[in-house]
Design a protein that fits this description.
The protein is mostly helical and 186 residues long. The chain has one domain (2-185). 79% of the residues lie in helices and 3% in strands. It has helices spanning 2-22, 28-48, 53-67, 73-93, 98-124, 129-149, 155-175, and strands spanning 126-128, 183-185. The longest helix is centred in the middle third of the chain and has 27 residues, at 98-124.
């Protein structure tokens, strides 16, 4: 249990430092929201003695806003408002469906980051390692949610392996941002 708690604590601490390096970049708010997920869920669970799925659901909904780069603010706001409404319904009636909503949102974020990576590559003929890490991070989240949702027997072990992987990605984001990232020539 000590190892598990240590992994979770290290993950939270690493991701708290990521927004500092991403300050003044277009990804700052995305990383700031990510950094606040675990502390918010922990406080929520301690104060309300409630399911931590609630802050993760609403945090994921808010996370979508800074991840949709090329959509007008009014459309993004309307989408977030609609998802918040759906989230409220889910929270009060069927919290187990929250994982499906999170999978859909993270898939949208994954596609958005994949598009950013492909556009950068097509314009520069270089692969920005920062973009690749964003895509890998979102992909690992999608796999984690999928395994959790399907209650696959490897779920807990897979959760901790992917969390360690996400710690490594978080450490990368502490040292590199979109402007100061290694580029791979193709």
């Amino acid at each position: 249990m000590l190892i598990i708690n240590s992994i979770v604590l290290i993950n939270s601490l690493v991701w708290l430092f990521v927004p500092i390096r991403q300050f003044k970049t277009r990804f700052f708010f995305f990383f700031l929201i990510l950094a606040l997920f675990d502390p918010t869920a922990y406080v929520w669970g301690q104060i309300f003695k409630s399911n931590t799925a609630v802050p993760y659901l609403f945090g994921t909904i808010v996370l979508l806003y800074p991840a949709l780069f090329e959509i007008k603010k009014q459309i993004k706001f309307g989408l977030i408002l609609a998802l918040f409404t759906a989230g409220l319904i889910v929270v009060f009636y069927a919290i187990n469906i929250s994982i499906i909503i999170q999978i859909v949102i993270h898939f949208i974020i994954f596609v958005s980051f994949l598009k950013v990576m492909v556009v950068f590559f097509s314009l520069n003929r270089k692969l920005l390692l920062f973009h690749l890490m964003l895509v890998l991070y979102e992909f690992s989240l999608l796999l984690k949610f999928f395994v959790f949702y399907n209650e696959v027997g490897i779920g807990p072990a897979y959760y901790y392996v992917t969390t360690v992987f996400e710690i490594i990605i978080g450490i990368f984001f502490i040292f590199f941002n979109e402007v100061h990232s290694p580029k791979l020539s193709m």
